[in-house]
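To: structure desk
From: M.T.
Subject: fold request, one chain
Message: Could you run this one when you get a chance? Sequence is below, nothing fancy, just the single chain.
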Amino acid sequence: MKKKGIGIGCMWYGIGNTGLPNPAAAFVEVHSDCSVTVLTGCADIGQGSNTVLAQIVAETLGLDYEDVYVISADTGVTPEAGATSASRQTYISGNACRKAAEMAKQTIVEVAAGLLGIPKDEVIIKNKKAYSKNDIEKSVTLKEIMGACAKKGVLVVGSAYFNPETTALDPETMEGSPYATYAFATHVAEVEVNTATGEVKLLRIIAAHDVGKAINPKLVEGQIEGGCMMGAGFALLEELELRNGEIQNPNFSTYLIYTAKDIPEIYPIIVEDEEPTGPFGAKGVGEPALIPTAPAIINAINNAVGIRFTEIPVTQERLIKKISERKGGETNG
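Reply: Done. Structure tokens follow.
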């Protein structure tokens, strides 16, 4: 018999490391052709941080994303940015890149103010131009500004670092404020359980995430979808078998993971509640996409067959065993 169930999983997650210094630095240089080079130690391991950091710098300097070239994670030339972990890089390296770009922008503003004959606080940089906020017809292109910089021997560069404010945990009470910001998420999972075979089919997941501000919505959706599948594998398939410290199933023929053909319907919902301390309001969305999935699936299985699992993955063998034990108990009773 096939039974359907629906379950919910919720989570909150601190962005960054707990109660410790957690800095990142960045260098920015605007060239005479109006292109930009960004140096950041942030390692892009597929999550798209290079794209996001380029977008942040471009937005700050009033340029196009295509104008920004990111050199990342090169220990020979890039500054320290900390680990690509703890869902921290958009928030921490993003802030470092924005601050570095702001420093370079100040040079552009000063030169633009001189060309326009207006105070610096009246200058607006946008769409590769500098405008007077009091008279938008009064403008000068970034190319002209960079030409003026070249004549004066002015280099448009910026450097900065960002270290979020945290309060270490008290060693006695374990109280403190270990994170500068938090991510929040709720996942709803629908499953179909075959009580004869023990197979659990994941039908769909609805995943709502507060990401602060989605710098790149497509990347956010991709992270949510990837996290959901990691969580599904955690809940239903992936089991590392150890014996005397040795892994017994080191190959994908015996260590099962989901493939592209197994992916259910996933509905990512981006909730934007801007974080005041984040770059343009953004915060992380890495691990939060994984965390609520397994609880949602376990709760959905419980909703379908009335069995609460406290061990994962819920393999076919474990599910059949639980169903058989319940039937045996009912018979004996």
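Reply (cont.): The chain is about 30% helix and 25% strand. Let me know if you need anything else for the meeting.
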